[in-house]
Each structure stands twice: as structure tokens, then as C-alpha cells.
Amino acid sequence: MSAQPLSGAQLICTALRRAGIECVFGLPGTQTVALYEALRTSSLRSIVATHELSAAMMANGYYRSSGRVAALLTIPGPGFTWALTGLAEAALDSAALLHLTTQPAHAPGQQFQLQALDQAAIAAALTKAQHRIDHADEVTPVLTIAHAEACTGEPGPVLVQVAREALRASAPLSAAMTGPPAPAEAEVAALDATVAALSQASRCVLLLGQGCAGAGAGEPARRLAETLSAAVVTTTSGRGVVAEDHPLSLGFELGGNECATLNALIEASDLVLAVGCKFSHNGSRGFELRIAQDKLIHVDACADVLGANYPARHLIRADAPTFLASLLQRLGPVPRPGGFGEGEIAQWRARCRAESLHHRVEPRIHGVPSGRPQAFFDALRHTLPRDACLVTDSGQHQGLARRHFRVLCPRGLIVPTNLQSMGFGISAAIGARLANPDRPVVALIGDGGLAMSGLELLTAVRERLRLTVIVFVDGAYGLIRMQQLATSGHVYDTRFNGPDLAAFAASIGATHMRLDGAPETTLATAIAAPGVTLVEVRVGDTLPMHWLRTRSVARGVLGSRLFAWLRRQRG
What we know:
571 residues, alpha/beta, Rossmann fold, 3 domains, seven-stranded mixed beta sheet
């Protein structure tokens, strides 16, 4: 007796669950009524965001914190276009997601249909692939392929457009399709070449990226570092692959675009083994990173990433966790002679720290006894367990977090790395929390980011999530304001009046706290509190920030050449 046919909408829900997807982010609309009816009776968890951009950022945070794909569901036209910045963030930050939308309206002989856009053409630059489902019996094979494409090689977003007729039509449930391909394994010759290069190198630097952050990669990465006595450096997205309190790690000291010390470290080494790294702008310290071709071995699952920007002695296409495990097996458990001693690494770490703070102008954090940002992030680090996840928005607070917050586990710091979109922090933190219900998640945003995405906390309250949101409040777009002061000495259009955060929190059903001293106690209370807790942290100017403005004004009055001459006379 054959199984009863299912509607296309029901088949979509079944195919998503078969692919391992558990969560769907989006908003219901006219064109997706049938799909939301199917979601109502499915085992998928549907999260309704305030708008589709937030839904896309949630799916991004869900994947980046867990390595599991979530679905994004939008209507065509305005729902599709609202999500585009989220697709761009996912594409540039290598985050897999499956974007389901319906096909635009079309009718033979009729132009200017409602909400009609060439969605495939628009999404072409932002997605790994685009697919159509025209008939209900295409649902399972197309979604199986689309899910595999999102995860394979460099992860990224994939678009699937479904005909509305296909949602209502029926088709039998097809047999389960094959899952995604097995992780790419390095060829024997490539492993042999790597082992040979390592045997000839007395000092090695491990450069680890987001490709190493997947399940099971942290342990072999740590063991490889210890076997080689290698210095460990990470990209921003690879933070925590090896815990940053490990004696061989320099990762947290090399945030931002400071690069002189890192280049000196590489110069003092014989080999750089870069695993799971995309040498993007932020992955190469603004392309200031220097690695001689004969020193670099580059390993990545994506062929397009290999050799991009940095030619290498060996280019190896392989899944990072699989490669690390295979390499360790060939090397054996016995530590190799040579390498960097822990005392030497400590000296490099101190040198990196001095470089990162050189000429660094930072704000004052009120409520912290010293007022120093480092003291605030030390308190936050001491309060959080090792496996906690910190998610930031884009802005001055992100730079401070990257500089001062130690990451002690893979996927322990999530930032909008290569698009740097404001409005990322709260939504991505919601996604991260949903992906890891037992893992503490803290969102760190500025008051500018709160103005852009603060109402998304309604979603967190409605879903009864435990989420701590720290808001740095300075009444300005702080990073741009500092850049204005540095270049002209004047501020324009970067000041604004924010809401009363206590009243705002009360209006959405969240708890409000203000950091007025005892930072560890306040933060611990907020993190342990049920529901959504908004922590207000006042941020102000320091004397160096006032000097920054005075110096810029003086440069404008005296002229750049005379100003530079006077500075030289001061020594």
C-alpha cells in the first residue's frame, strides 16, 4: 500500500528535517500561508523575527555557533530584498544557510506583476547556488542538493525559489536522498609533503581559521601545536580553536590590523601551516601579512580559497578537521625536537600586546574601578564559563572585545567579520542561543546598534530565551565619531539621543541593570538571570580622546607640514 501523497509544503518540512535542519527563521506572508500551515504541524521550530534581515542574521549566528544549517524563509519581493544584507554577511563570513522563498508572480502576456523581481540575478553574487522548484515531486531532490551545496567546500548561503503551485500540489514522499558528501580528505602525497616540510622546519607557526572551528577540530589543532611546539595564531573567525590561555597561543594578542610583530614572528619561523583560513582583508590583517611562498602550506576545503592573495609552497584541498587528524596520525604522539619554547612565546605575546596598545586611543568604561576597557573584559571573562559565546555587533565595542577578550573555546567569539554589518549582534546572538540552549551567550552591542535592531529582543522574550545583552552607551556612533575627531577635529551627524534603557527593557518584558561598580558581581547576576537581561554600560571620553580632537584642530589651523615639524621638535 503506497504512502498517502503530501502537499509540496509538507514535503518541504519533511525534506528539511531529513537534512538535519531543526530551525526555520523568517516571517509569514501571503505567498507562504501554505508553508506556515505545514510548519505548524511539523517538528521544525519556527522563529518569527521582526523583519527578514534579522531572520537572516539569526540563521548566520545559528550556523556560526554550531556548524548546523538553519533555514531562512521569506516571501518574494520585499521579504527577499530585506534579507539581502544577511545573505551578503553569510557569503563573506562563510556561513551556511538555506534561503527558501517563493517565485515572483508571473503570468503570460502580463507585465509589471506585483513584487516581481529577477531574484536569481539579484542573489547570484551573494549565494553559492540558486535552484527552482516548479513541481511538488522536485522538493526532496532539490532541497537535498541545496543543503549539500551550502555545507560543502566553503560554507555559504544557497537560494531555493518555490512555485506557489508546488506548495499546494501533492506528490508521494520519495525515498530519502543521500546526505552531503563526506569531508574532503587530503591526498596521501599532500600529507607526505606536509610531513616532509615539517620534518625540515625547526620552528612552525600554525595559522588557524574558521574552517578549524568545526566539531572535533580544536583537539587535534591543540595536539598538533604541542607536538610541533608551534606558535598558534588565528584569524578573527578562528578565535578559540586553541584556547587563548594555552601557553603556545598568541591569537588574542593579534586582533585588528597590527601586523609588524606577526610578520617578525613569521620571519623567525621556517614554516607557516595555514589551515581553514581564507586570506580575506580581515584574515590577513588588511593584507599587511607577509608570508614567503616557500614558507606557506595552505589547507582548505574550498578550491577557490587556496592560493588566493597568498601563493603557497603546497596547496592542499581538504577538510580541516580531517586533515589535522590524518596529519597527527602520521606524525605520531611524540613531541618533535626544536620549536618555540613557552618562555619565548611569552616574550612574543608581550611584544604583540605592546604593539596592539601603541598609540591606541580607547574610551573610558564607567562602572569599572579603573575605567579601562581591559578591566571590563577581564571581568566579563572571569564571569563567563570557558565554553560561553560572545557575539558582537559592528562598532567601537567590537574592536575593544577583539583586543581584550580571551576566547577559550572554538566558536567562542562571533563577529560580523568581512561585511561588518551593524544590526548583526542581537539577531546573531538569538540564533546562537537557539542553536546551543545550554551554552551561555552574551551579545555586546553599542547604542547605535540597539537603535537599529533593539526591537529584535521582542523575539528573544517571546521565545523565552535566556540572553544577556550588554549595551555600550555613549550617545554616538562611537567609532565613526573617533575617526571624525582624528581627521578634522569636528563631529557631524554621529551624535544621537538614545532611549531610556530601563523604560525600554520594561516595555518589552526584559530586565534592566546598570553597571555602576563591582563589574564581576553585576555581570554574574545578569548572566545568571532568567529571560532577557539588558546591561547598560556608560562609555565616555578619556584625556587621549580629548587630545585627539585638539591635535586635529591644531593640524587644521597650522597646516599639516608645520604641525609635523612642531611634533618633531618635541622629540
